[in-house]
Design brief:
heterodimer; A: mainly alpha; Cytochrome C Oxidase, Chain A; globular; B: mainly alpha; Four Helix Bundle (Hemerythrin (Met), subunit A); 7 helices; 0% strand; binds protoporphyrin IX containing FE; binds copper (II) ion
């Protein structure tokens, strides 16, 4: 073992690191509302994302109620169903998960974990949140606009997205959706610049890239991807807005509406929209997944008291996935008709992505292997994530094949698959992460009993919802159909299953209310957590106080001497050595 | 989607080059201790604002590469009729070149500590950019006067879209440049303005490059070039 600690070297003076100018709040407003402190911005992001996420959750109940009990809920017409579906999908993917992982966790954890006092551009960071909030308000406003929100499906494919047969197509719905997305992207870009540059330039002394916790690697790479992928959605939205508002023909072919009413468009290319959309849409899957991967790695390592297995490979895999996911977008377009060679290319790259992903799964399992596993709530969620992810990954391999994808493409099988991989799996990580970092944010632990109840109902419930749904899809029930009626190929068991799934969805939804209650209740009544309740190594647990004060660390920034995973080091007197502990490994942690 | 793929390949090359200096092959678990042994892996000494602007310009580049990709994708359809591009664009291009040169002059004035030259150069840069924007508006007016409205034909729609997008970026830059101008006239100390001036110059140079590329696309030269390349390949 090469211990590079020089004999008797004192701590390196932090003065060598260029201090970032800190903005100091003066009153209540600048401290809690128009705050430039990344920790406050993080909570604002997370709160807003949760609020709009609840709307999406309620929409999913309404859809499930319609699917399970079509006659009782006859008041939900196909049009309303489409609107619910569109808003549910869009909110969940973008306004909840993306915002929560990058704006929420990114803002809170990046400065703390890399040892910075704040983000490098605090003012821009604050603007980022307010623009995000505006985007959310515009989106929510579309529920109250004449004609209601858009019902175009979360992919917003033209031409139908802006024709009058689609709810909101010729009303305000689609316009508000596009404007809201454009705002979101502008706001995100402002935040994203901060996350990237803070990782590049805000690292404290000794925090080399290869000493970054994987959480930071995940969020960092996802942000870079998002910065490069969101412009595609931006372009698509702007051009669609042109088509809709001034009647240009970027995407719109010549079309006659309702048999009589020719629209002003001519010759546009809907396929072009699909290219742009999926150029964003596929990386988006990994923009959500990479932070989840990173966070899970840290949860597992901390709660199994073991160093992460294959740290280097984990980093390479994150980078590899990030790069590859830009060259696979067209696998969503197998059914749109393309040259078979292209189909082959995209199918190959898609399957290649499975390699780094599989490496990550092996490494998690190997980290757990013979670890000192503490079944804390964050650990439970992390384990649940791995199981779910493997599951979803297997069905994904089916869909990555052109031959298999074509018949399954528009069935509930796909819905079940992507809910497993991009819905349930990341949400499990979000929960695990909240249970893990809540003590740092508030100074108190979340209630254990409520937490365990929440975990088991959510985990088992998610399987009760989405497992049967695979079967429903395999017998051929199409997606995006509010009711299937008495169709010959649909056996009666499907109807029973649909009712069952609906009830399961309601129960899982109820468990989330318990969780929200726990969040509020524990702020006052939780057990005091202390500075480092999980006995973790990373810098956010070594702050001067909990919750960390403005400026994060005390007078001096911490100096980093080791990687983030020195758990259970043989010979050390404690089973963890913080990253800023200067002593050589064998003495680390001794009193 | 070829334009964007090429652009991303460029970005990937830069990122790859940078990553190759970060000791990704090292084994961090064996290397406890101060990192003085590998100083180059720490945060670089460049000012964060410069790096931030660099990243932002990469995003801007992506945006325009995507717009150009869309342009090429759309132009193969039968209804595409390119319209003659207004002549005034030549003059506008010259204005933007002038702005870039002026800002480069401002950078060297700021470095040398010549406040008068700095003020003058910054002012020329800003005025030339305003002239560019005015010229673009005139181009729109001429274009519309000849009957080419935004909905006339996809080629004209793209003309308005691309110029508008680029113009908006210039307007955004002018806000920053306006502030730098203001500060330059207020205080005689030019050293505090070195960084902001450099940032403005960097932004303007990149937007100039973007404009030249857009100009080639709008003039149809880019398409010709692609045809020639195709011809050479087959
Ligand atoms: C309890 C949790 C959830 C339930 C019960 C649920 C239920 C549903 C239902 C019934 C649909 C419509 C399927 C159809 O008719 O085609 C749907 C669509 C969708 N959901 Fe969820 N969902 C849940 C959570 C999530 C999460 C966490 C995400 C985040 C990624 C998500 C993303 C989507 C997307 C992208 C669509 C597709 C919308 C479209 O087809 O345009 N869902 N969901
Ligand atoms: Cu994909």
């Amino acid at each position: 073992m090469v211990d590079l600690t020089p004999h008797g070297a004192g701590p390196i003076s932090a003065a060598e690191v260029a201090e970032v100018e800190l903005y100091h709040p003066h009153g209540w407003w600048t401290k809690y509302v128009f705050s430039q402190d990344a920790k406050v911005i993080a909570i604002q992001y997370a709160g807003t994302a949760t609020a709009i996420g609840l709307v999406a959750l309620v929409l999913s109940w309404l859809m499930r109620l319609k699917l399970g009990f079509p006659d009782t809920f006859a008041s939900i017409t196909p049009d309303t169903y489409y609107q619910f579906m569109t808003m549910h999908g869009m909110i969940m993917v973008i306004y909840l998960l993306t915002a929560l992982f990058l704006g929420g966790f990114g803002n809170y954890l990046i400065p703390l974990m890399v040892g910075a006092r704040d983000m490098v551009f605090p003012y821009v960071n604050m603007l980022s949140f307010w623009i995000y909030l505006l985007a959310v308000l515009v989106l929510a406003g579309s529920f109250f606009a004449p004609g209601g929100p858009t019902g175009a499906g979360w992919t917003l494919y033209p031409p139908q997205a802006i024709t009058s047969g689609t709810p909101g197509g010729q009303d305000w719905g689609i316009i508000l959706m596009l404007v809201s997305l454009i705002l979101f992207i502008v706001g995100f870009t402002m935040g994203g610049l901060n996350y990237v540059v803070t990782v590049l330039q805000g690292r404290t002394r000794g925090m080399t890239l290869m000493r970054l916790p994987l959480t930071v690697w995940g969020i960092f790479t996802a942000t870079v991807m998002a910065l490069l992928a969101f412009p595609a959605l931006f372009v698509a939205c702007v051009m669609m807005l042109f088509d809709r508002v001034i009647g240009s023909s970027f995407f719109m072919p010549a079309i006659v509406e309702m048999g009589t009413n020719p629209l002003p468009h001519d010759g546009g290319s809907p396929i072009m929209f699909q290219h742009l959309f999926w150029f964003f849409g596929h990386p988006e899957v990994y923009i959500v997944a990479l932070p989840a991967f990173g966070i899970v790695s840290d949860l597992i390592s901390t709660h199994a008291r073991k160093n992460i297995f294959g740290y280097r490979m984990m980093v390479w895999a994150i980078i590899g996935i990030g790069a590859l996911s830009f060259v696979v977008w067209a696998h969503h377009m197998y059914v749109s008709g393309m040259h078979p060679y292209f189909g082959f290319f995209f199918a190959t790259t898609t399957l290649i992505i499975a390699i780094p992903t599989a490496i990550k799964v092996y490494n998690w399992v190997l980290t757990l292997w013979r670890g000192d596993i503490h079944l804390t709530i964050p650990m439970l969620f992390a384990l649940a994530f791995i199981v779910t992810f493997v599951n979803g990954g297997l069905t994904g391999l089916f869909l990555g094949n052109v031959v298999v994808d074509v018949p399954l493409a528009q069935t509930m099988f796909v819905v079940a698959h992507f809910h497993m991989v991009m819905g349930v799996a990341p949400i499990l990580v979000v929960f695990g992460a909240i249970y893990h970092w809540y003590p740092k944010v508030t100074g108190r632990m979340l209630n254990e009993a409520m937490g365990r109840f929440h975990f088991w109902v959510t985990f088992l419930g998610a399987y009760l919802i989405f497992f049967p749904m695979h079967y429903v899809g395999l017998v051929g029930v199409p997606r995006r159909y509010p009711e299937i009626g008495d169709t010959a190929f649909v056996p009666p068991s499907v109807h029973t299953l649909n009712e069952f799934i609906t009830i399961a969805a309601l129960v899982v939804g109820f468990a989330q209310m318990v969780f929200l209650f726990n969040l509020l209740w524990s702020i006052r009544h939780g057990r005091p957590a202390g500075d480092n309740p999980w006995r973790a190594t990373t810098l956010e647990w070594q702050t001067a106080g909990t919750p960390p004060p403005h400026g994060n660390f005390g007078k001096e920034l911490p100096v980093v001497y080791r990687w983030a995973y020195d758990y259970s080091v043989p010979g050390a007197s404690e089973d963890f050595i913080p990253q800023n502990d200067p002593r050589p490994r064998t003495q680390g942690g001794s009193a | 989607m070829s334009a964007i793929v090429i652009f991303l390949a460029l970005i990937a090359a830069v990122v790859g080059w940078w990553l190759s200096h970060q000791r990704l092959m090292s084994k961090p678990w064996l290397e406890a201790g101060p990192v003085t042994a590998f100083p180059e892996t720490e945060a670089s000494l460049m000012h964060p604002a410069k790096i931030g602007l660099g990243v932002f310009l990469a995003v801007v580049g992506t945006l325009f590469a995507l717009l150009i990709s869309a342009y090429f994708m759309r132009m193969v359809y039968a209804d595409w009729q390119p319209a003659p591009v207004p002549k005034i664009l030549w003059l506008n291009t010259a204005m933007l070149v002038l702005a870039s040169i002026a800002l480069q002059g401002a950078v060297s004035a700021a470095h040398k500590g010549q406040p008068d030259n700095l003020r003058l150069a910054l002012l020329i840069g800003a005025l030339a950019s305003v002239a560019f924007l005015g010229g673009q508006l005139l181009a729109w007016r001429d274009f519309a006067a000849e009957g080419y409205f935004a909905t006339e034909n996809p080629a004209t729609s793209f003309f308005y879209l691309l110029t508008a997008m680029h113009g908006l970026h210039i307007i955004g830059g002018l806000v920053a440049l306006g502030r730098v101008n203001f500060r330059a006239w207020q205080s005689a100390r030019s050293e505090t303005l070195v960084l902001p001036t450099e940032l403005c110059a960097m932004y303007w140079h990149v937007l100039l490059v973007v404009w030249v590329v857009l100009f080639c696309v709008l003039m149809g030269w880019a398409a010709d070039l692609i045809d020639i390349c195709r011809g050479l390949l087959t």
